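Q: What structure does this chain adopt?
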Amino acid sequence: MFERAKTRKDELLEKHFLRKLTPEESREFDRLCLEDDELFELMAIEGTIDEHRRDPRIEQALSAAPPRTAWTGLRWAAALAAVACPGALLFWYMGRDTNLVNVVLERPRQAPAAAPKLEEPIILARHMPAAELEASFRGQPAPAPPPASRPLPTAAEDGEVNVPFGSQDGVAQGARLEVRRDGRLAGMIEVGGAVFLNHARGRVIEGEVQPGDQIHVPPAMRLRAIWDRVDALIRTRDLDAARRLIREGTEMRGLGQAPKRQGRLKLAVLAWASGNLEAAFRQADEAAAAIDDSTTRPERLAIWETLAALSLQRADLSAAGSALREAERAGPGAEVWNNLGVISEKHGDLEDARQYYERALQSPGLSEREKLVIERNLARKGMTR
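A:
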């Protein structure tokens, strides 16, 4: 029988029950509890389990748990709690995508434990990787950067051609691609049909093209494709490959300072994923220092939002407030309003915090996770009207 690899959630959960979380891991675990419904519900019965964990025999058993056991700390705690409480009804099952054990513990003649009171407001950081990252398979080669050009595979039919580039190469509907023959411009193709992962349909809008002509992807599209691949590598914890690809992206020419500035932001995300908060803050700060007139509004927003979230993690409310004011000018959304609410709440101004949280809830395009976090921020200190 194959044993599933531990996820980050499993690691934090086990450390939580063995009381071995570092301060940074504790903050990560708190954030994960609010982002994961199963884990949040699980923590609602922590008081019941903790009651039994105070038994010296149980503490001793937990401390002596074999490191390679298939049971997580939660399984040990739940099982021992059941032993300590005869007649308890205990269920556990595997989650859809993780080894997280979901425990429902019903004790006779005792009311169910209330959900834990959360002491700290929750920061939104949509540009940061989720606390639980995807599993990766070791030994798989890292995706190579998309090529600058590929040959046209077939002749045009009624002006339409098969384009050997797709969404993974940064190509989208409406993209215009140069076609060159012997180094000279021969025509222009506009992508107007369906765009698939590695190919698309397009129409010749200038010149005449033939099989073997080289179709060129503009540098900006190539750079976007590189950053998409970096994000995928970070999500799968292949941080070394992500770092190498970031280096290649920052060396792209013809785009001014954009590759280096955007590379700094990607390095901040990578440092965050590896647990190095200070390095993440330094990289985001350098990205902000590199903002110039060529920086697009979405890029400005991403940089300032990220810097604000990292500043909040460092408990630097002044720096976070400054970054959020810059983000507000770039085009605020749920993250900006929620995190302004966090700052107000930390300053003790619950009325301002409530107004910011409510404004965040009204933001267009709100994801379910963002909505859940904002609602819990509102409910935690009774700010909901």
